[in-house]
Specification:
Layout: H1 2-29, H2 35-47, H3 60-67, H4 72-84, H5 89-97, H6 100-105, H7 110-119, E1 134-135, H8 149-158, H9 160-167, E2 171-182, E3 185-195, E4 200-210, H10 213-230, E5 239-246, H11 249-255, E6 263-269, H12 275-293
Parallel strand pairs: 1-6, 4-5, 5-6
Antiparallel strand pairs: 2-3, 3-4
Helix pairs in contact: 3-4, 4-7
Length: 295
């Protein structure tokens, strides 16, 4: 009881001290020294060890958002990524809310998770542009929902800026319902992008049902067409991504057997992921670090 009262007294004293300090600094230096700002200034000091410094490429508002993240690995990732992708504060808020770090960390080993936290997401190979899952909560589709593939495609194009933010750095929009003609038969790729960093086309097909082996074969056809007919000098082989609500891992494994390694089947969802579930998975992977197995 005495300990609890002591903590309460110290807390009240600290609160009063910050309020007094806020008034004094405001009188002396003007705006910017509210009690709330002083709290975050103290957090900034405590979270950056000697020899470290916060990025001068980010605003104070960016750093306030970052300081609200308790986990240092997660905070480091968002700081690096905000600098690398030049996120605005609302974009940073959206990526935090969508648990981008936890989604990118899913399925990675300990070494890759630490690298992700220290450097952000570095785009070096096709698999680096994937999310697990992709999240389209910005479409604001309420559940229960019934969308056709055309409806989903239209909504994504109507929210192209948010869609590009979810896809990540380097994507430029080429077109929708991109026509592919073979022997006078017309096919259409739902969405076509060009990736400036990987220097290749990225073809996306949307599926609202379970994936079937024919869908994979069709995407492989599109990849062959773009490689032969659309690539120009300097372009790398195209990437194909089939986005589906339901993914049968075994079917995908067999349907892609010895097939193009640039073809991916990824899940998407129309609501924010369960953050706590993702965090439990991450903590399970990182537990060995706490046991002395980390770098």
């Amino acid at each position: 009881m005495e300990f609890e009262q002591g903590c309460k007294i110290r807390a009240e004293y600290g609160k009063a001290l910050l309020s007094t300090l806020s008034r004094d600094l405001t009188l002396r230096h003007g705006k910017g020294f509210s009690r709330s700002n002083l709290i975050y200034m103290r957090l900034l000091y405590r979270n950056y060890q000697k020899g470290q410094k916060p990025s001068d490429l980010l605003s104070w508002s960016h750093h306030v958002e970052l300081l609200r993240i308790d986990d240092p690995l997660e905070r480091s990732f968002y700081e690096q990524q905000a600098v690398f992708e030049k996120w605005s504060v609302p974009e940073l808020q959206r990526q935090k809310k969508s648990s981008l770090f936890l989604r990118l960390a899913a399925g990675k080993d300990k070494k890759d998770i630490l690298k992700l936290a220290r450097q952000g997401q570095i785009i070096e190979q096709p698999s680096d542009i994937l999310r697990d899952p992709f999240v389209f909560e910005f479409l604001k589709v309420s559940e229960p929902y019934i969308l056709s593939e055309t409806d989903l495609e239209t909504r994504l194009c109507n929210h192209l800026q948010s869609f590009l933010l979810e896809l990540g750095k380097g994507f430029t929009f080429v077109g929708r319902q991109y026509r592919v003609t073979l022997n006078n038969t017309h096919y259409r790729v739902d969405l076509v992008f060009y990736h400036r960093i990987l220097r290749c086309f990225v073809l996306i097909d949307l599926k609202i049902r379970e994936i079937e082996h024919q869908d994979i074969g069709q995407m492989n056809l599109y990849l062959g067409y773009f490689a032969a007919e659309k690539n120009t000098e300097g372009d790398n082989p195209p990437i194909g991504i089939i986005l589906t609500r339901h993914k049968d891992e075994l079917l995908v494994e067999y349907a892609t057997y010895k097939m193009n390694s640039q073809l991916f089947v990824q899940k998407y969802q129309l609501y924010l992921p369960d953050r706590e579930e993702l965090r439990r998975e991450l903590e399970l992977t990182l537990r060995e670090i706490a046991d002395g197995g980390g770098e």
